[in-house]
């Protein structure tokens, strides 16, 4: 069925502020890792949901401010289900994932790195492990399915990936202005994971499946010059390289017992965190029993609070506020002469409600690539 251009144009300006989207939250095997945790989110909440311009810029790699790694790397297992939550409001102040009129494809790219904190995400080494475009049978785009699933998009990690550190990059392309304004809109972000697997050794990806970001698309890319408002849509060419699913090498697998498994040593979320907010972690205030020690503890508490806020500007300050309120209580006790402490911090991490059931991966590219 033809989509109504006139209706789109009438609504476009009114909905512009809330029509866009941002990848905010990673789930691994249906477990919420925490808003912003292990995710390279933009620092400016006012522009966090805006599309990337131009599409040849370095922001195409991991979004605005995404070149810099974040502190935490989330562990995943062989074949884990990764789910990416997309929000119109990054701090979940209101429901919604993306404007239903922002029709287009989705894809997930991945890049293996030796060192998450020194190796650049930009450049070569990226390959696509999943994609979904337009289904002529159901007449639905990937964005249709994303909206139906409350902004939750899932993909299984290929079981042939070897252990190691990976940057995972989901992307959405909105094509509503691709032809009429020469403006395909990219929304994307990056998550940091460490893959625990019995598959060891280097990752070998055929050259024809590798790509460089930025540089893998421009305004002349066929899939970005596609008119979604045609009566009879022709087959849609999804931008980027073809999907590549690494297979388990059975001969190499037979050698695994003789090798020491690779273990995560960087980006581990500390076990002694008493509260986490995005990629910040609060440590317990040390015990004190004198006035000087009491005030030292209060200063240390507030110093941690100041570090919290820059780490969670996009996804919200609820946990930073929770920690700051605790520091205020310690401050009041010191003022009142209660110098033996501190009182225990007993609050839990605040997480935005999950918008719906975590979906399985749709458009099973694993079967298609057997």
- Helix amount: 10-25%
Question: Please, how many helices?
Answer: 7
Largest sheet: 7 strands, mixed
Rounded Rg: 23 Å
CATH class term of the largest domain: Mainly Beta
**Strand percent estimate:** 15-25%
Distance from first to last alpha carbon:
33 Å
Structural class: alpha+beta
Number of DSSP-assigned strands: 15
Name the shape in a single word: globular
CATH topology assignment of the largest domain: Coagulation Factor XIII, Chain A, domain 1
List the uncertain runs.
Answer: 1-18
| Tally of separate domains | 2
Mean pLDDT, all residues: 93
SSE order:
HEEHEEEEEEHEEEEEHEEHHH
Q: In the CATH classification, which architecture of the largest domain applies?
A: Distorted Sandwich
Provide a concise account of the structure shown.
The chain is 20% helix and 22% strand. The chain has helices spanning 5-19, 59-62, 142-148, 250-255, 291-311, 318-335, 365-368, and strands at 22-28, 31-35, 74-77, 81-87, 106-113, 123-132, 134-135, 140-141, 152-156, 164-174, 185-188, 191-196, 211-213, 273-277, 280-283. Strands 3, 5, 6, 10, 11, 12 and 13 form a seven-stranded mixed β-sheet that branches. It has a four-stranded antiparallel β-sheet with strand order 2-1-4-9, with no helix packed on it.
Describe the structure.
Keywords: Carbohydrate metabolism, Cellulose degradation, Disulfide bond, Polysaccharide degradation, Secreted, Signal. This is lytic cellulose monooxygenase (C4-dehydrogenating). This protein is an alpha+beta fold and 370 residues long. The protein folds into two domains: 277 residues, Coagulation Factor XIII, Chain A, domain 1; 63 residues, no CATH class. The protein is 20% helix and 22% strand. Strands 3, 5, 6, 10, 11, 12 and 13 form a seven-stranded mixed β-sheet that branches. The chain has a four-stranded antiparallel β-sheet with strand order 2-1-4-9, with no helix packed on it. The chain has a two-stranded antiparallel ribbon with strand order 7-8. The chain is globular, with a radius of gyration of 23 Å. The two termini are 33 Å apart.
